[in-house]
Amino acid sequence: MGNIDLHLHTTASDGVMTPSEIVNYAKSRGLQAIAITDHDTIEGVEEALSEGRRAGLEVIPGIEISAEHSPGSMHLLGFFIDIHDPILRERLGYLQRARAERNPRMVDKLNKLGVSITFEEVLKASGGGQVGRPHFAQVLIEKGYVRSFQEAFNRFLRKGAPAYVEKMRFSAEESIHFINDASGVAVLAHPKTLQLNDRFELENLILRLVQEGLRGIEAYYPEHFAFEVELYKTLAERHGLLVTGGTDYHGIEKNGLDIGVGRGDMNLPYSILENLRTARRPSQR
Ligand code: AMP
Ligand code: ZN
Ligand code: FE
Ligand code: FE
Question: Which of 64, 150, 201, 240 shows a CA-CA span of 20 to 30 A to 133?
Answer without folding.
Answer: 201
